[in-house]
Design a protein that fits this description.
alpha/beta; Rossmann fold
């Protein structure tokens, strides 16, 4: 993948589609490289008339890994967050949002439609609040507000355990694929279990890009150390669509509903059968809705 310099880091990036089309930035979630975005999803957005930009967040995939940075104990940090105590981390979501600003600068993009999944939706929220001039529209998918209340912060303990379980060595690609298959078997869409085998090629691609446990832990600490973002969300002016799976076991649908309630004018839509993933059977429905939202926002 090509790389660009951003915010003192090197970010792996790919650009898809007509360079003159309205830009749409996809921001991936916790610990996952851009390789997790389904090809059909990206291609359909290109077909809908957008220039689609995907990239690996810091501490993930081929982007800069902050090796040697002290990483506090994650389990203790989760407990502190649930007890509404301050959590320390090596960086915050604001820093990751600044990474996206630098990425847009490097690509010569003034304003973009921003579509973020899970942690990517949180980064998108901060980007829209802190850098309103750079966001044409925001689509926040399967994300929360940072509210530490248990019914908003985390879903089922089984799902939380699945994403925090240590992965196998990154050079054992077969074991990594098996690990990811188990994870998505827990957090994925119960209404589309038949789609799980179709995810294998994507998971194999993720395994080749590499999982980086320390980076994933630091990203999780970025979420926890940023804390409650509700006061930030009320300042978002970009047209916003909040999408959430009705059966998300990791981030409760109530969390998405709360986000929409705090973002002025935001639309909230529940997707039946969807969990904390992008099942192939839902690609058309999701792309149609996102594309319509972006066009309504002017592009």
């Amino acid at each position: 993948m090509p790389t660009v310099a951003s915010n003192g880091l090197s970010l792996d990036v790919e650009v898809h589609g007509d360079p003159t089309a309205p830009p749409l930035l996809l921001v991936m979630g916790l610990g996952m490289p851009a390789a997790l975005w389904p090809d059909e999803f990206v291609a359909a957005l290109v077909q809908a008339g957008f220039r689609v930009v995907t990239f690996d967040n810091r501490d993930c995939g081929g982007s800069t890994r902050l090796e040697g940075v002290p990483t506090p104990d994650v389990r203790r940090a989760i407990l502190r967050s649930l007890l509404r105590r301050q959590v320390a981390g090596p960086y915050r979501l604001e820093d990751m949002a600044a990474d996206t600003v630098g990425l847009l600068d490097a690509l010569g993009i003034d304003r973009a439609h921003v579509v973020g999944a899970s942690m990517g939706g949180m980064i998108g929220q901060v980007l829209a609040a802190r850098h309103p001039g750079r966001v044409r529209s925001l689509t926040s998918i399967m994300s929360n507000t940072g509210n530490p209340a248990r019914r908003y912060a985390f879903g089922k303990w089984k799902a939380l355990r699945a994403i925090t379980r240590p992965p196998p060595p990154p050079d054992d690609h077969a074991a990594v694929v098996e690990h990811l298959t188990r994870v998505f078997g827990v957090i994925g869409s119960p209404g589309f279990r038949q789609d799980l085998p179709m995810l294998k090629p994507i998971l194999e691609r993720v395994a080749r890009r590499g999982l980086y446990r320390a980076g994933t832990e630091r990203q999780l600490l970025a979420i926890l150390s940023t804390g409650d973002r509700r006061a930030l969300l009320v300042g978002i002016t970009a047209p916003t669509l909040v999408l959430h799976g009705a059966d998300d076991p990791l981030v409760p649908p109530a969390a998405g509903q709360e986000a929409a309630a705090y973002i002025p004018g935001a639309q909230f839509e529940v997707v039946d059968g969807m969990g904390h993933d992008f099942p192939p059977s839902l690609m058309t429905q999701l792309v149609v809705r996102i594309a319509a939202h972006c066009r309504a926002a002017g592009g």
